[in-house]
Amino acid sequence: MAIKGMISGMRAVYLVAAELARWGFVVSPTSRSASGADLLITDQRCKKAWSVQVKSNRKGPGFWLVNKNSKTLKSDRLV
């Protein structure tokens, strides 16, 4: 069961990355050990940058699983 969830989560990360790239952003997935950010994105001129955390559910959106540090991760550039 954990493997299916991990694959579903990584699929979501790459789907979001593909969509952001289609919109013209430069997108880079982070390593699995990065805290709080699944994607690092910037505009074409590298003037603005954001960290993006992607959440997904294999089943219906009943709840979002976040870790205990999620309340301390605050930034104007974290989406």
Strand content: 15-25%
Strand order in the sheet with the most strands: 1-2-3
DSSP strand count? 3
Mean pLDDT, nearest integer? Answer: 81
Order of helices and strands: HEEE
Low-confidence stretches: none
- Measured between the Cα atoms of the first and last residue, the distance is 28 Å
* DSSP summary: helix tally: 1
Major beta-sheet overview:
3 strands, antiparallel
- Helix/strand-derived category reads alpha+beta
| Portion in helices | 25-40%
Shape annotation: globular
Rg from Cα: 13 Å
How does this structure look, described?
With 79 residues, this protein is an alpha+beta fold. It has a domain at 2-52. Helices cover 27% and strands 15% of the residues. The protein is built from 1 helix and 3 strands, in the order αβββ. The chain has a 3-stranded antiparallel sheet with strand order 1-2-3, with helices on one face. The radius of gyration is 13 Å and the shape is globular.
Short overview:
With about 80 residues, the chain is of the alpha+beta class.
Topology:
Elements (H helix, E strand, L loop, with lengths): L1 H21 L3 E4 L9 E4 L6 E4 L27
Antiparallel strand pairs: 1-2, 2-3
